[in-house]
Amino acid sequence: MLVGLRVSRMAGARGSETFAFLKGVFAPENSFYNLWLDKLWSMTYVIAQPCVDVLDRSCVDECPVDCIYEGSRALYIHPDECIDCGACEPVCPVEAIYYEDDLPEEFGPYLADNAVFFATPLPGREQALGSPGGADDIGPLGVDTPLVAGLPSADPGKETG
Ligand code: SF4
Ligand code: SF4
To answer: Which of 103, 74, 93, 91 is closest to 12 using CA atoms?
Structure first.
């Protein structure tokens, strides 16, 4: 059950368009996940493309609420569990973490993609991850969103899943 929803902040038009597109792809209109994505549309900090294939977990060590979850090739911030403290942003060695208003245009899709990681069933899973309330207990998920999974490897000699 999702608790403590933060729905007060509106995203910019660019992010809203991306979010609406991804919702249409992954969550049919009036479905549970569609409604859930609407509620999750209050995220504040986002992990973007530079994290892919880096995953050094420096951000995880700084997060006071354990809301940074590990996929296979990247980490994802839970938009509802994040308390917007900003502690993770300066420790990232590749500048992958942004406050939503500071997200560069090229990384716009990652605003919705962090929510998709939790609100829709990931490849090979029947249930969405939802709001586990802490990443440490569930450990690495070993799977990514379609957006991240489809990126070319940062190491051309290494195959991606
Ligand atoms: S902003 Fe704070 S609460 Fe949110 S992911 Fe970063 S360290 Fe965790
Ligand atoms: S600190 Fe940056 S590169 Fe390292 S896991 Fe976190 S987001 Fe990814």
So the answer is: 103
pLDDT in tens, 54-70: 999 999 999 999 999 99
Residue 70 sits at φ, ψ, to 5 deg, of: -100, 125
Index of the ligand 2 atom closest to the CA of residue 95: 2
H or E element at residue 40: helix 32-40
Q: How far is Cα 107 from Cα 148, in angstroms, rounded to an integer?
A: 12
Predicted TM-score (pTM) above 0.85: no
Residue minimizing CA distance to atom 1 of ligand 2: 92
Q: Cβ atoms within 10 A of the Cβ of 38, count?
A: 16
Q: Which of 49, 55, 103 to mutate to test the pocket of ligand 2 (most atoms within 8 A of CB)?
A: 55
One of 2.40.30.10, 3.30.70.20, 3.100.10.10, 3.40.50.11740 is the CATH number of 13-145, namely: 3.30.70.20
Go through the chain and tell me how many residues it has: 161
